[in-house]
Amino acid sequence: QISLLPPAPTHPEFTFSGRMLPADEVGGDFYDVLWDPLSNRLWITIGDVSSHGLGSGLVMMMTQAAFSAHFRATPNAPPGQVLTTVNALLIEAVAKRLRDDKYVTAQLLQYEGNGDFLCGGGHQSPLVWRAATRRAQYVEMGGPWLGLVPALPEVDTDTLHLEVGDVLCLYSDGITEARNEMEELFEPHRLASALEAAMDSVKDFDHVADEVIATVNRFTTLRHDDWTLLLVRREKAGSPGGDDAHC
User: Measured between alpha carbons, how far is residue 168 from residues 17, 39, 128, 163, 209 in Å?
Assistant: First the structure.
């Protein structure tokens, strides 16, 4: 099975625990962690291409590459500008050249320092596990999907804050729409409970994602869609303006 995972992402303030399980030989989900130590710019992306299989995998690679190229060229670009550019590239490549109707739900989170993220795009709204309460809360977010219309309307930006010790949970709908024998969906509230249980029982953060995935596996009988999960824990407070990138 083929999926494009970022190579052991690192950052001075955060640790990461991510897993991706494709439903077919080639997955249509992606996540990426893009960090430039010189500018201390950090982007986190997650996305899900409609359907799955080889065609979706191709569109996934295009989308992931488009975000990465934008980051390398203009890491200070606001989320709305980035999403508008990636959408235009997908329209040109997928709709016009491949003559395909696949679209992408994708979310971009740009770190602004002091625990604050700017967020844009239409994807599954994230969960945040709060260290102070040891409970996970659902953070409602909305935005446009990519690859459907040639020009996006104005893209609204949401904000998200992590205190030290908090965990951001990004995921694809393959997890929350997993079904059991009674045709019940796993849904975000079960994902929140699974994350809470894992944070209470697993000592090594790198294995928290494994425990959450194991909980989904115990719930469902068959994986019909790609499963993607990325957990991001804020470990410490950084210097305003990213000065600790050079420490």
Answer: 10, 23, 5, 10, 12
Taking Cα atoms as reference points, which of 90, 41, 50, 42 lies closest to residue 66? 90
Greatest CA separation for the chain:
53
CA 43 – CA 73 distance, rounded (Å):
13
pLDDT digits (tens, 9 = 90+) for 23-37: 877 788 999 999 999
Residue 93 backbone zone (phi > 0: left; psi -120 to 50: alpha; other: beta): alpha
H-helix or E-strand containing 209? Answer: helix 208-219
pLDDT tens for residues 59-117? Answer: 999 999 999 999 999 999 999 999 999 999 999 999 888 888 999 999 999 999 999 99
Rounded to whole angstroms, the Cα distance separating 171 from 29 reads: 10
Helix, strand counts (H, E) of the chain: 5, 10
Q: Which of 140, 136, 131, 189 is nearest to 165 (CA)?
A: 131
Mean pLDDT of 166-170: 98
Length of the chain: 247
